[in-house]
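Note to self: the last two entries modelled the partners one at a time, which told us nothing about the interface. This time every component goes in together.
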Amino acid sequence: MMLTVVGFLVRAMVVLTGTALLTFALLWNAPGDPAQAIAIARFNAVPTQDVIDQVRAEAGLNASFWAAFLNWIGPLLLFDFGNSSVTGRPVGPDLWVAATYSFPLAITALAIGLAISLPLAILATRRPGGFMDRFAVAIASLGTAIPAFWLGLLLILLFAVQLAWLPAMGARTPTHAVLPALTLGLGIAASLTRIIRSGILEAWEQPFLAAFRHRGVSDRAIGRDHIGPHAAVPVVTVFGLELAFLLEGVVVVEVIFGRPGLGSFLTSAILARDFPHVQAVVLLTALVFVVVNLIIDVVYRVLDPRIGEPDA
Amino acid sequence: MTLSAIGLSAMRSGRIILHPTSVEIEPGARIGLVGASGSGKSTLGHALIDALKAQGLQVAHVPQSPDEALDPLRSLAFHWHEAAQARGLADGAAHQRAIFSALKIDGGDLRKRPWGWSRGMQQRFVIAMALMGTPDLIVLDEPTSALDPVIAAATMNLLDRHLERTNTAMVLITHDLGLAARRVSHLMVMAAGRLVEEAETGKILNNPQTSEAKRLAAHRNWMEVPC
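The predicted structure of the combined assembly is written out below.
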């Protein structure tokens, strides 16, 4: 147990350090002069060479790559994300504000995805190959094929422009979150439906089910107590991959709907070459990934303790 | 009461795999259902179970391997409780203890999942579940072929004694005539979906009438195996 915890921490450190180094190297070597981009973002005007040189010195861009990298990662070990190159303000609080927009959105989208996909998949697998099943598969394929940016625009056209039920842009009230959450949630519902459906169908092929029917256990109880757990194992595994889709979706959807979350935070930081901002978002994302994968690991060890047993 | 099922038959993809067959079983009888692979033993076994259940009788079935009877994700206690509920029995602890000690699995930890027990123990647990509530008939489909001979023999001995005590009838489906010879009083020989010969065990072994029974009885070396 102790070994598992230490192993996990070591792995997490390797992933996070690698992510930090890679993003820093990519930004550092991106074409164009970062000092110029920062100066433009800071003064909102075309800067003179003097100003650019001054910004370069302030942002620490004169140093060598390794010196700059260590200069940034040193304070980070004490949870200090540094100051924005553009505004000069500390990154931490701004990052937190952006996260309070993005995480609720992501969680709502996940909830919407589950609320649609779970009943749909259960209905579909009642009669495999039947009408409901084919309907669910068709809807799911369609949903996976439609990109979030297009679905988002369609929803804006329908609910904000035509019907005028919901606001399209911004994030002032909770109703502003409905369309973005729906855009993300429908995409997630589509892929989850496929995964849950195949998980359930696979579970029905377990060799022991006939014996349970013989014993007089009702189909309802078999579904709840035996199919459910067996179907959950692959679903939980794929859930981690779903998260990647979700993070990518959050960036796209926030830009479309003009929400000031992590996605908007990241895109404007990239355009301004605001190294500390970009790094902070990427590291936070990597951290979420690591933590979610840890949770998934734990969950399926609970579901199926044979996983991870040395001799099962 | 004699258990009887008349005109059992079965078809699969338009082919008759079990020709109409009638079976009568005395209370407490031990019947062996033998024949080559694909002769229709298991099919007759299932048809018999369905027919007797339709008459409102309690019939239990023990499949070949515990993998076909137990959910690896659920504890053994869950299995027991679920089966008791499905049969409408109260979770009788005394009844459970009696069956468990008869099969010598009372030392096992029921909180474990099936794979936490050895295969022999798992199979005994499956048999114990089948004996729950004292059924009118227990059908065992190659119950020991997944076990090693010593454990198989011990399991069959324990089962034998328990069935004797409760006067429960048994149908043993097997291709292993050695096992059948030791455990049953009557043999039914199947071939190509038909019941071709039916007599006392000794008669079939020593004086087989049909070619199928002769072929089975010709292999005498099985008698040396402990089970």
